[in-house]
Amino acid sequence: MANVDVYNINGDKVGNIELDDNIFAIEPNENVVHMAVVQYLANKRQGTKSAKTRSEVRGGGRKPWRQKGTGRARQGSIRSPQWTGGGIVFAPKPRDYSFKLNKKVKRLALKSVLSSKVAEGKFIVLDEIKFNEIKTKEMQKVVNNLKLNKALFVLEENNKNVMISARNIPNIKTAGVNTINVYDILKFDTFVITKEAVENVQEVYA
Description:
This protein is of the alpha/beta class and 206 residues long. Helix content is 34%, strand content 16%.
């Protein structure tokens, strides 16, 4: 099993923990990871852009001039696309860009990026991190002690004080075990997780 050090919020090593090789030490599958990132970004797209086609632009019901005899090109409507104020050819319309991935594929992608973080030495386990109140200053101290630049903190679902304390710190993001995704793990340089959250991850994704 993969063995990593455990640190406290002061940045001191306080022990180590064994990680499940089926989650944290697999051979990363780049193709599946790419699919997961594309799906995440596609699902985030609003798809609300819209423009009017020639049939939707107001006016243009009358033929601007007769078909023949004027010396000008024939025209059927002043709202044709070539006219100023006319409709748009193949105008964009609201649509849903989202698509689904199989659960097994999503799990494999998540395991792949987690394994990559462990292999790169960018995986930090904390014994625990808890605040009695919401304090951004205290969270900043933890970030400084661990010498983090751009990090994703994965916490237990009920750890609201820490999550809110980290909200205003640049390049720091928090997530629960059930809300982590491949895109965020790749986006942030360091993956920080509590011992309790590691156990939850191993239960959920085993």
